[in-house]
Amino acid sequence: LEPLTSTKLGLQPEMPPRPGMGAVDGKGGAAARVAALRERMKDLGVDAWLVPSEDAHQSEYVAACDRRRAFLTGFTGSAGVAVVTMNEARCWTDGRYFLQAEQELDPTVWKMMKMYEDLSLEGWISTHLGPGAVLGVHDMTISAAMYERLSKEIQKNVTESDAVTVSALSQNLVDDVWGANRPPLPRSTVFVHEVEFAGKTCKEKIQKIRRIMSGQVKDSETVAPADFLVVTALDEVAWLLNLRGFDVEYNPVFWAYIVVTMDDVLFYVDSSRFHPGVADHLASSNVNVRPYTSIADDLRNLCRAKVAWIHPNTCNMALVNSLERAPAKRIVKRKVSPVALQKALKNKTELQGMRNCHLRDGIAVVRYFAWLESELKRGHALPTECKGADVLESLRRVQDHYVSLSFPTISSTGANAAIIHYQPEPETCARLSKEEIYLCDSGGQYRDGTTDVTRTIHLGEPSRREVECYTRVLKGHIAIDSCVFPEGTTGHILDVLARKSLWDVGLDFKHGTGHGVGSFLNVHEGPQLISFRSTAADAPLQEGMTVTNEPGFYESGAFGIRIENVLVVRQASHPGFLAFEHVTLVPLEPKLIDTSLLTQAEVDWVNSYHAECRTRLEPFLLADPEGLAWLHGKTAPLACT
Question: Residue 64's closest CA among 184, 166, 159, 156?
Fold first, then answer.
């Protein structure tokens, strides 16, 4: 099969210019945007307005027209929530974005709040809004889980008359402020993801979900029986029906909902966007197409006196309100969606696809790093961060089954590498230097899988501090990769393994250790996580899941380090135990490794991994002398000192 690209399909995927926020003009317009929002708050009679990052499907990454929090605040990170009152404006984000938010938020308008360090969103609302105040939020952009948590937390220790009311409203005040400058709604073509890549037909997947709904098949949180299941997350919709689209940059998904009953599958989507073959594909599985905007009305009619199953983290309050008004006999909410769990458990075809695409991806990354060193040897100027990212993308583009990047490449040198989710801009990006660490976190979307790899290299002579920090990050990476754990273990338990070597010397990193990875789907996939956050305890790791292994360390103003591989959960040699298989094949940076800090077992792990990289990648680099020489140099055996 030929590589599938948007051009080949005749598509025009949404690819907004950096930073891709339509009318956003950075810090300069922050005051005007907040002032305009406050005028509309007065008109609506609310005391505060909540602006989540998510869209109607509670997506982590959203289309340009849904980047409301970014538009309002000027902060472009993917995670965060903003609150505006008549006197204050606050924006919460997590540790991945502290430095970025400090740079992008206008401090005369916004105050950054550090999640897990400063007062929580709920705590701040409780203490800063007066008795009987109304907190407004658009009902399509807040999940049932967040709405319930907010309502519960801010009413603690107060009388009913003094409590703040959370009001989910149909009007979106940020859209009113954005006005005609808001980017258009996405209209990418929806196309079939062939079973040769998917491994299972959508009919087989639907049958499995129905068995879970009826209680015939147990999952971690089965509710039985449920009359219908509302599927709201975009990657779950795409996976269940073996379809893909380009509504969200870098994520092959499209706007749609699904309602599964024991007799019907209702697919809420704009059918005018179907690529030839989609209609027949759906008809073969008895999927009925309905207008995207009709789901709320249909739920009111469908669920009267029925048991409805939703995932509260991805179902918005507008749909919950429709279910409640019917009224439904019962609305069942579970931490883990049955579709998300089945999607996370990769079948044999998907797992082989992940191995295959990571091999091809490794070839591209090796050629990129070899090119960098060759440029230096030739006496050429090293590229800028943006130019480097473009060269790496060009090397991926020639690989079989390549479709697009899986996220914007984090090409970061020196102090920029300390910004965890740094994204270089052509006007301001730095030039790579042999005096500084270079961190490159990148990935690709291929028809047979999704990749995500981070390597930290040095083109000159690293400092002793950089070497020690890299080696301690490597020790944590090895600890995760080589651990064996009993079935039922969650990533919440394993996370400490990645941090111990850093903790030994008083260091740490402010992000989780690993996230799930989709199969030609979102690069961030749940429900599995390896993290210190409580959500990592929601779902145990199971055979067939994929998860990243990416400990790091970031010294503000100096450098950043991260080492990331994608792992597959597999059966261990002991019954009842699990282990990991790494599928990423890119050598580590030997000049950043202090073998005196490694045990013999850790040195053996590095040598074994490098031997695997050399054996697997070498046949594809025989016609590339520079790439082959770089591979041989980086994979030479280490000796324990």
Answer: 184
